[in-house]
């Protein structure tokens, strides 16, 4: 069961973006105005990450697929993102198709305080902890609760400033830490974990 080969899917139940490799943004388009999108080494995890920063969240972002006429076609209902909180405004957006053949967008932001459901977009608040976060988004559940329809597939993912991205993946269900392949885990070096305690 491999879905959305354009997203770098491999194996059963996984589709992913990761920041390591020679071309992490190969299937992504990027827009930058008054900001930057670059790979850096994060001091907390001692690993390459993608930093998306800008003075305006709406004008600096990455989007997948790169071609605006194409869609991902990923049927896996769980979107998981490993994101670093930069203590600045941050938002991301996911466009899905439901069983009424309607394209719906879900936008989560750390600067919004209330959820608003409109016919084609649902905007909602998001709270991030300091440092690295694992954001788990049940697209099937959100589609059902917001619109009373059934999730069919993910069409597009857009990650806006301001954050650092380690990994983005889709899965058929939520996996425990023990079940995840090593490359899907976020390892924080022991000395950093002790410093936070």
Distance linking N and C termini: 41 Å
Q: Mean pLDDT, nearest integer?
A: 86
Helix % is under 10%
The fold-level CATH name is Jelly Rolls
Specify the CATH class. Answer: Mainly Beta
Number of helices: 2
Number of strands: 13
Q: Main beta sheet, described?
A: 7 strands, mixed
Name the helix and strand elements from N-terminus to C-terminus, one letter apiece.
EEEEEEEEEEEHEEH
- State Rg: 16 Å
Poorly predicted runs: 1-7, 190-197
Strand content: 35-45%
Strand order of the largest sheet: 2-5-12-7-8-10-9
Broad shape: globular
CATH architecture: Sandwich
Structural class by helix and strand composition: mainly beta
Total of domains = 1
Task: Describe the protein's architecture and organization.
The chain is mainly beta and 197 residues long. It has a single domain (5-196), classed as Jelly Rolls, CATH 2.60.120. 8% of the residues lie in helices and 43% in strands. It is built from two helices and 13 strands; from the N terminus they run βββββββββββαββα. The strands form two sheets. A seven-stranded mixed beta sheet has the order 2-5-12-7-8-10-9. A hairpin with a 4-residue loop joins strand 7 (91-98) and strand 8. The chain is globular, with a radius of gyration of 16 Å. It starts with 13 loop residues before the first strand and ends with a helix. Mean pLDDT is 86; it is low at 1-7 and 190-197.
